[in-house]
Amino acid sequence: MADDDELALLAQDDGMRFELLASSLRADANDAGAFMEALAEKLGGALPQRARVERGGGMFSHKHPVRRIALNLGDYEYVVVADGGGALSAARTHLVRGIALKSESLGLDEWIETLAAELTQLADRSAQDRAALQRLLG
Questions:
Q1: Which helix (H) or strand (E) holds 81?
Q2: The pTM is what?
Q3: Which of 2, 28, 44, 70 could form a disulfide with 34 if both were Cys (CB 3.0 to 4.6 A apart)?
Q4: What are 76's strand-pairing partners?
Q5: Which strand ranges, in their side-by-side order, compose the sheet holding 66-72?
Q6: What is the residue extent of each domain of the chain?
Q7: Could you give the CA distance from residue 125 to residue 40 in angstroms, rounded to a whole number?
Q8: What are phi and psi of 121, to 5 degrees?
Q9: What is the per-residue pLDDT across 6-63, written as a single tens digit (0 to 9) for each?
């Protein structure tokens, strides 16, 4: 059984992992386009079975910017949407058997913090998701 020092180190490691993830997600938040591209790359690469990325632009357009990212984490779906003007809107939806029960708008910082906490908890429950979190952190 772990002693108090080991438990403190484990808690500190979880806190550090959470902070690293949150800061990694927040890194490009000042530029909406760069944020959406970086987030799509990070989440799509680390959790391809859970992330859906929707891009804009037409078939003949040279640019296909990320318009919407949805990440399904079981009980919750986290969505961030970029409008054409560069503004971002973020929300979290509570799901039960795939049916949306409640959707709440969140500020981007709160969305990032909540998502990072949920991903950290997910990593604690699953070895596959733990490996995905490691890929996300690079």
A1: strand 76-82
A2: 0.77
A3: 28
A4: 94
A5: 51-55, 66-72, 76-82, 88-96, 99-106
A6: 4-137
A7: 24
A8: -65, -40
A9: 323 333 455 556 566 667 666 666 788 888 988 898 888 888 889 999 998 777 767 7
